[in-house]
Amino acid sequence: MLKITNLVKKYKNSEKLAVDDVSLTVGEGEVFGFLGPNGAGKSTTIKCACGILPFDSGSITICGHNIKDDAIAAKRNIGYVSDNHALYDRLTAREYLNFICDVYGVGANDRRTRADKYLSLFGLTDAFDSPIKSYSHGMKQKICVIGALIHNPKLWILDEPMTGLDPKSAYELKELMKEHCKEGNSVFFSSHVLEVVEKVCDKVAIIDGGKLVTSFDIADLKDMKDNKSLEDVFLSLTEDKPENGEVNFD
After folding, report:
1. What structural domains and CATH numbers belong to the chain?
2. Do residues 187 and 156 touch, judged by C-beta distance below 8 A?
3. Using an 8 Å Cβ cutoff, are 235 and 201 in contact?
4. pTM of the model
5. 14-66 pLDDT, tens per residue?
6. Under 8 Å CB-to-CB from 43, ≥6 apart: which residues?
């Protein structure tokens, strides 16, 4: 679904690389967690994958489409939740979702059925015709999530999607992620809530200082000595920064 190969990104006027030779693959049916401390390069990598930021070298393909060579085809397969509420907040939620559906060519029946489902699920039915600028922080996050799901893309790319969600909505989103992958699709998401990542994800990659430190199957945690949790692994790798970047699963 998503293949990132030797990705390099450097911001103007910065002496260090924001993303330094990162490679990873998200397979069909996988929930893939992308972890790292603040400033590690997570959001930069995600924005490059979504075609929002240009990058210096490497390649990114989404469902077989190269993001540089065929950006429109690649982006049609993505549902993206940013980490900063990228919304047209002068629109009502109905107007906003109709706009998203128009962009992705979602038919009238599908958009109505999906909107009804997600609005009910996230408790926004009564606010559907209210301007988004009148929404609370949590409500804005919910409409961001719905906007990313309503065209039923193959790949969901979610940057801190749980931020601002109440416990019920966070639970529903986790269930949607699992359901989406059971249908042969994939989810690539970043989060600081390690307990959620450990429960939901099939695979995890950890980035620090722009470099990919490690990646592994969540199931491998069970084979580690001393019953290490994902939190234990994350803290040991991002605080101690071992030179070989490997986790010992013996």
Report:
1. 1-77+185-250 (3.40.50.300)
2. yes
3. no
4. 0.88
5. 889 999 999 999 999 999 999 999 989 999 999 999 999 999 999 999 999 99
6. 83, 159, 190
